[in-house]
Amino acid sequence: MKSFLLLSTLELSLGGLVFLLGFIILRENPSHRLNRTVAMMLFFGGLGAVLAALSFMASRTVSTSTSAGTAGLLESVSYLWEFFFPALFLFASIFPRERAFTRRMPDFGGWWTPGFGTMVFAAHTFHFVLMMVLLVWKPEFVLPRVGVLRYVASVAGVAGVFLRLFLLVHQSLFSLVNLGFGLAAIALLFDSLRRTTVPRLKRQLGVIAVGLSACLACYSLATSIPQLLALRLGPGLRSGLTIAALTLGPGSIAYAIVRHKFLDARLLARRGILYALASAALVGLYLAVLQPLNKMLGAVPGVDPRVFGPVFLVMALALFQPAIARLEELLDHVLLKDPADYRNVLRQLGRELQTTIDLEQLLGRTARTLSEALLLRSVHVVALTPGRPVAFAGSGTPLSDDVLGRVAEMLPRVIEHADGFRLSESADLTADERALLTGSLGIELLVPLRWHDDLLGAILLGHKLTETRFSSEDVALLTTLAGQVAVSLQNALLLRDRVAVARFEEELNLARQIQRTSLLSEFPAIPRCDVHALYIPSRQVGGDFYDVVPAGDGSFLIAIADVSGKGMPAALLSSMLQASLRTQSGGARSLATILKNINSLLYQSTAIHQFATFFLARVDGESLRLTFSNAGHNWPVVMRPNGDRTFLERGGTVLGILESVEFEEAQVALGPGDLVVLYTDGITEAMNGRGEMFGEQRLCEAVEAMPRGVSAREVADRLHRALREFLDGREPQDDLTLLVLRVTERVAAERAVVLAPEAVAAR
Predict the structure, then answer these.
(1) Residue 750 has pLDDT above 50, yes or no
(2) In whole angstroms, how far apart are CA 270 and each of 92, 253, 257, 331?
(3) pLDDT at 541 over 60
(4) What is the DSSP letter of 171?
(5) Predicted confidence band at 754 (pLDDT cuts at 50, 70, 90)?
(6) How many CA atoms lie within 13 A of 228 on its CB side?
């Protein structure tokens, strides 16, 4: 009798816990098909346990007509628990992904197409209805042998025999249908386990597949197989197998929920399961201890054990409260603190991102971790970096440049003030934007990345593999994580900018060193001439250059040029022009030919917006005759001791604009005391605070005001001081380049200026 009560109590308790677990799962997300299916599977499984326990207890009561009727009713209603098998098959067909065969349903003439669930439960629904009909009606076809009925009485009797035979076979062999559903469900679960590559989903499937397989085996041994083989199990064995089935099947689901977040259960639901399990364990312990104590007290003469019942209950309540709290804490530490739990994964990610300063590593790690932790079909992390946006995909198809541009354009408007929202609930999207985000990209949730009031980017999360929606708990956790990602993203962007600036400065310093070595600080000796140059770039590297190159025939080439643009590109281009000049300086080429070759090189190797002005002159070391050609450069000026000025303007257009250009040459004779001043527009176009330019007139007046006989260096230095005084502390906006050639000795040849020299066609 004691074992009978214990087994019945355990069956009822476990059935109640299974009902509770099903209710928690259904309440968690009643609109989700998977939650409803799992809850239905647990309800039918728990119902089977409860009905089996009630039938067991009814069979042990005194045999009366009432108890016999109750037992018969319970036995018939107990067929309801067999719906557990189609529910199990339905669950295996839609988890983790809906199978293709669930969408191929027969069409009955176009007027009705049953759903997959309807087809799955059809056989068991017919079986249950039939069993309920047999409860109130026994098929007997006995007709009186009177009149014409005597001709059909025999046929009716045979029909009754066949009907009863059919019902007997149906009732006996329907267990094969249950086994078929169960085996098919287990095969589907293990097939899904084999196909799945997502770690957390694989762990969920592993736990559930093993647990439900053991549950099916115990259920089959307790019910289906004995019915199929006409075996009668003892009540104890049958109850033990049922208890094992209820422990293994629903227990595996509860374990998957608590440990691996099956069905995306919220933390409150998972704690509720833990609390229920802990409470059930302690109540069971209380009942197990109470029975021996009552027996011991009952053996004492004159002692009524019922008197001590309230005392034991008060003591249990006092002791169980801290025990339950401690047990729940222990289970919470073992199960909820799992490193694989997605909440812990996201928290760990937040801590790691605080020390991540590489932009690509930051975005890539965030996208991959979110995809694996939340089981997402697609996830993209978009950073609105200066220049162009950057995106990394944790799963799904990477964003193309066109799509990324459209997403980056709409993000500031769509999530201007929101902390994160579901696209299905947003009214701020246009039809095209909604089609792009929800249709093409499959995005369900947007979470912005903000640093103070600046939008740095967004996290775009697609649908979950489990087809569950993002809970409010998910959104809150993702919003917190987005704040940490935004801080790390801001740091990464600042670091990238600083690294880029440092790299740029390093490159500029290197280019400046190269440029300084290419610009002469000591000049070759030109007979009866003094040469000096001054170069001050507006940035660390400029596009101006000058050069004095021996030509090999006793003459010298003097050049000054101004390349369009500033910084590194202009410096590289000026270096190329200087190299081309020096390469051609050794031959007997004319100035026009040299300029034509440089123009062709510049036109063919640079963009259309890159050009250069170039002045090139040849000084004869014997006669001091200066031959020149000016390619669009500022006119150098020859200053005579008597105050005459000659501007050297003859030549052609700037270099690099046209492919085929002809340049002219002209000549001028130099005499003692003559100054030739070559300069760039950075000097003449330098502007003071009043908006006035320095100009050629001030330059000439500054030279004329100098004492006679000063060196070329002194002329350059005095011109620079005059320019600084004119600017009055204002920094020049362009490179300052100046080259001064001074004739120190009278020549025998008569000084003359060739104002209209013959044009020399470029060869």
Answers:
(1) no
(2) 22, 12, 7, 11
(3) yes
(4) H
(5) very low
(6) 14
Q: Angle at Cα 147 formed by Cα 143 and Cα 152, nearest 5°?
A: 45
Residue 550: strand, helix, or coil: strand
Query: CA-to-CA distance for 392 and 373, rounded, in angstroms?
Result: 16
pLDDT score, position 191:
93
Across residues 379-388, what is the average pLDDT? 87
Query: What pLDDT, on a 0 to 100 scale, did the predictor assign at position 74?
Result: 55
Q: 28-32, 122-126, 336-340, 626-630: lowest mean pLDDT where?
A: 336-340
Nearest to 95 by CA among 378, 424, 465: 465
What's the CA gap between 120 and 710, in Å, rounded?
110
User: Residue 762 — pLDDT band, cuts 50, 70, 90?
Assistant: very low
Query: How far, in Å, are 50, 62, 75, 223, 406 from residue 70 at the CA level?
Result: 14, 12, 9, 20, 70
Residue 751 pLDDT level (bands cut at 50, 70, 90): very low
Q: What are phi and psi of 741, to 5 degrees?
A: -115, 125
Q: Give the C-alpha separation, 473 to 10, whole Å.
A: 36
Task: From residue 61, give the alpha-carbon distance in Å to each of 66, 240, 345, 425.
Answer: 10, 20, 56, 59
Q: For the sheet containing 645-647, what is the strand order?
A: 529-536, 736-743, 675-679, 637-639, 645-647
Average pLDDT, integer, range 443-458: 87
Does residue 321 register a pLDDT over 80? no
Q: How far apart are CA 26 and CA 272, in angstroms?
A: 14
Amino acid at 673: G
Phi, psi at 557, each rounded to 5°: -95, 130
Tell me the one-letter amino acid at 63: S
Check whether the bond before 96 is cis (ω within 30° of 0).
yes
CA distance 437 to 381: 14
Instruction: Identify the burial level of 454 via C-beta atoms within 10 angstroms of its C-beta, where 0-12 means exposed, 13-18 middle and 19 or more buried.
Output: exposed
Pairing of strands 675-679, 736-743: antiparallel
Torsion-angle region of 110 (φ positive above 0: left; ψ -120 to 50: alpha; else: beta): left
Residue 273 pLDDT exceeds 70: no
- The per-residue pLDDT for 369 is 83
Structure-block tokens of residue 567? 């910084």
Contact 679, 732 (CB under 8 A): no
pLDDT for the residue 1: 42
Q: Of 226, 253, 223, nearest to 239 (Cα)?
A: 223
Number of residues that make up the chain:
763
Instruction: Name the DSSP letter for residue 633.
Output: P
Read off the pTM: 0.57
- Closest by CA to 483, choosing from 522, 510, 456, is 456
Residue 42's pLDDT is 85
**Looking up tokens 């250069």, which residue turns up?**
612
Measure the CA–CA gap between 236 and 227, rounded to whole angstroms. 17
What pLDDT score was predicted for residue 252? 87
Instruction: Label the pairing between strands 443-451 and 421-422.
Output: antiparallel
**Which amino acid would we find at residue 24?**
I
Residue linked to tokens 């709290």: 325
